[in-house]
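#struct-queue
[09:14] JT: dropping the first one here, sequence first, then the structure tokens:
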Amino acid sequence: MTYHITRIAGTDFTDNRRLANQFIANSASQLGFKEINYSLWENDYLLNQPMRREALINAMFSDVNPGDTVVMTYPLYIALLNFNGEALNYLKNGKKDIKLIAFVIDLDPWMRGGDYDKEDNFTLNQLKQFDCLIVPTEKFAKRLHEDGVNTPTIVFNFLDFIYDGPLLEKKFQKKVYIASGRAIRLTNYNMDSIETVVIGRNRTPNDNIKTEAHRPYDHLPILFDGGFAAVDMINNVSTNVIGEGARFDWDKYSEYTAPSKQSLYMASGMPLIVRPENANAEFIKKAGIGLVMEDLSELDAILDKMTEEEYNQMVEKMKPFQKAVSSGYFAKRALMNAIAYVEFGYENNLE
């Protein structure tokens, strides 16, 4: 009996999708999982090529045998969406007596603004075919159930961000970091009194904003020297885009997920700022590792009342979480809980 996990081959140290996939696979490997490596084949290479797709899928899963368990990092992020479904069908019908777990990173219909057919959605119907789902948050799991996906679910809470490099000392200061892989616009808060550092592409015409170019993931944590790091504060930071006939509602979508920027901040040892709709807002507040507010315009008054000692306590409380996300703890815990369910029927950690 062997445990397998899918892993995107190759390197692109600025691609959050690839990094999330590879961080999860690396953590699984440390638990003894065997990696199933594949490439992000282009749409033109796969479209109208059913025999080529079949050959690739057969090769990917050639080492899977009866009695094995396969964890599919979901989605596979291959441009041709049919590939995901065909791979799943092959595992369900072409392999006997195997167990299938989806480690869900993203969900396409939720990313796109507008309605979708819950009864006949391509992605939701795929998730119904797995034996178990590992999903980002309890809020994510609840919405899946509301959408008719009743597959047993395990929650991982935070994406890991594997990092073992140096960190700067965190100092109490009126400063906020905002990182994004997409171009952002900032509005509706006092950028004159709060030093703002954007990591990525900044489309805000304000001379008081410092912009740091996006860079390989392991070069990022060393940038943070204190203050706070903001996670998807949609009243102040927008990344929504419209293109190719599809609207991507990142702002709404981020309410349910475990954002990769949040994990970057935690791996950097930074206290967080999240909005109340953040799926982990209640936990973050209770754990004392960040602030919860609707709008960055509230930050001035909060910091005027905060003492340096209170800030340092937040930094100290973040340290065990920094170690956890940096070492792959959350993926490992979720994977072990999922295996406990599919192999032994252990249900205590199901949502």
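[09:21] JT: and here's the second one, same format:
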Amino acid sequence: MSDLTAIKNNEILKPFFDRNSEFDLNTFNFFDKDAVTALNWEGLEQEQISDRLK
């Protein structure tokens, strides 16, 4: 299993990836606040997930 597959299947992160199927961890700019806001965070712990993805 690749590292990215393990990340996408993590119990905390999986719901995020399910809601944001177009999200690319390799290219996403977490410093772009508009891009972060545009993600689907409904029902998710945004701060906790963002910290794990960075």
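[09:30] RK: nice, looked through the second one.
[09:31] RK: The radius of gyration is 11 Å.
[09:31] JT: good to know. The helical segments are 3-8, 14-19, 33-38, 46-53.
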